Amino acid sequence: MPPIRLFKRVAVLLSALLLAAPLAAAAKDQPYEHYVYGALNTPTPGPVSGGLLLMGGGDRNIDAMKWFFGKAGKGHIVVLSASYGKEIGEEFYRDIGGIQSVEIFVFHARSQATDKKILDRLRKADGIFIAGGDQSRYVRFWRGTPVNEIIDAHVAAGKPLAGTSAGLAMQGEKLYGAMDDGSIKSPEALADPLGPANTIEGDFLHLALLKGVVTDTHFKERDRLGRLFAFVAKAQVGRAADAPAMIGLGVDESAALAVEPDGSGRIYATAPNGYAWVIDGSGLRDVTDRRPLDAPRVKVTGIGPGSVVHLPSGRVDAPVFVRNYAARAGELVEVPRWSLAIHGGAGVIKPGSLTPDKEAAYRAGLDAALRAGSAVLDKGGPALDAVAAAVRVLEDNPLFNAGRGAVFTAEGTNELDSAIMDGATLKAGAVAGVTRTRHPIDLARAVMDKSPHVLLARDGADRFSVEQGLEQVDPAWFRTDQRWQQLLAWRKKHQAALDPTHLFGTVGAVAIDADGNLAAATSTGGMTGKRWGRIGDSPIIGAGTYASNGRCAVSATGSGEYFIRESAARQVCDRVAWKGESLNDAAQATIAAVGAIGGDGGLIAMGPDGRPVFALNDLGMYRGRMTARAEPQTAIFADEAWAD
């Protein structure tokens, strides 16, 4: 045996002996219990084949047990327990039946794990069943003993193993040992996942199909999702960065997961909603601090009677659900499969400042943009496509200052700016001062996808658009009489004469898709009367537009020079990543910083939990939101509340 491995084995043995000492001393005079039902020496009727039966700990699932007995050739079952006695034999042999014998050994001390009679019967077992009870006893009594080795060898030899409750919870590569003589609950585990109460143990069973897996039982019934998050987080501490993320596998009381030797597992359920749950540990890596769990997006997949799970990868065919959860300050919330938020600019918008028809028209425009973007997301499309789809609708709506309906420069032309950014890759594209592309957001996307650059401007951007085959329009396409009258008023007063209800008319969108990828897009006509090729914040990556997976996606609208000076969009994300601020606090603080140097406006932001944030400084903002499980909602006025 290699020296390192030998050292680990010795360390495990010493640790187990120290843990077991008090319990062994208390039980040294109590012999193990032994019960037999049926005949032990009869031939096994059928072939024996491998498999794992993972039972959630409720009432015994008869069909699942018959599957297990069949895998054991309907022969001889040995039950290992540290809590329960002969009642298991009564149930297996007399109530379920169809097997030759059931033999039960109830352990009361670690020393019994070397008893020759027990070891001999274990080696001859056609199937081994590990009963429920106190799993810390299993760790103390069996880890590093011949019982441990025989169970491993039994499975490796292609014989079936079953376990219920604690008998399931101990089978993963890592396990919650409950070593403090209690059973940690979800709130406690989430409050301090790396704390001493979360006793994660290892180097016990070594089952290939559960490598990289942490299991739990009584799952839904005892609200154990949060604690399994904590188990997986702590189990991955020190795990190699290039190793696959571990998964959590929880089984409801009314469910049993039968796993074939090839790793394919199916549910036997005694209730319609009896499931197993797969927790993707990739969202629970790199937890290093003693503080409440903060995990912005963790994927959870449900395994139902019509599903197939593949272990140890955790991939699920035909899942009954795919959900995402976020842990915030030690509390779990379900987050939407996808989410989208948009804005249509900001202004001094008070109730009554818009006619009913105008207000309805703005809300209808926002609604149409939300539905266009959500149609992409609902089909599993990427966030990048969704934000472009939403912005495209707003660019075609003359109510908004982007595309058709853009404001005029001092020279009486329309010069359009746009940007888009992919949070997954940090790729970005932007254009400024374009004059003939119907949808500037498509040109920004082309810059990102089809050029080595990030920002193209004016004539060069127009030429690139033609080369890329994007839809070209006569500049008159962008003209509206309302915007022209605003220019004429500006020329008379030589100052901005925008309708105050649309002072800052930029449009934008942020989204997160079903894969957890973030994206942001922004488009604008700029400001009335702009001169000298002025470019605002919208096409400046990090100022008016930014997206980074795991942090946030941002699109801003307002007095662009101030957003540029504050690097507003990137600042929001950096506050989240570097200062640990919530997305809402980061957005509000950033808008406050813009206001402190004289800027007005607002921004929308989306985090990995799919909850959009809308921040503005004493202005109204045309805005909307939609998720996979909610209809579109729009708002205009500063104090307008969402209908949660």
From TrEMBL:
Keyword Hydrolase: yes
Gene3D superfamilies in the record: (Glycosyl)asparaginase, 3.40.50.880
Active-site residues annotated for this sequence: T506
Signal peptide (UniProt feature, chain positions): 1-27
Family matches, as SUPFAM superfamilies: Class I glutamine amidotransferase-like, N-terminal nucleophile aminohydrolases (Ntn hydrolases)
Site description Cleavage, residues in chain: G505, T506
Keyword Ribosomal protein among UniProt keywords: no
InterPro entries: Class_I_gatase-like, Ntn_hydrolases_N, Peptidase_S51, Peptidase_T2
Pfam families membership: Asparaginase_2, Peptidase_S51
Highest rank taxon of the organism: Bacteria
Example of a GO biological process term: proteolysis
Binding positions for substrate per the UniProt entry: R534, I535, G536, D537, T557, G558, S559, G560
Keyword tags: Autocatalytic cleavage, Hydrolase, Protease, Serine protease, Signal
Family: Belongs to the peptidase S51 family.
GO MF annotations in UniProt: hydrolase activity, acting on carbon-nitrogen (but not peptide) bonds, in linear amides; serine-type peptidase activity
Name of the protein: Isoaspartyl peptidase
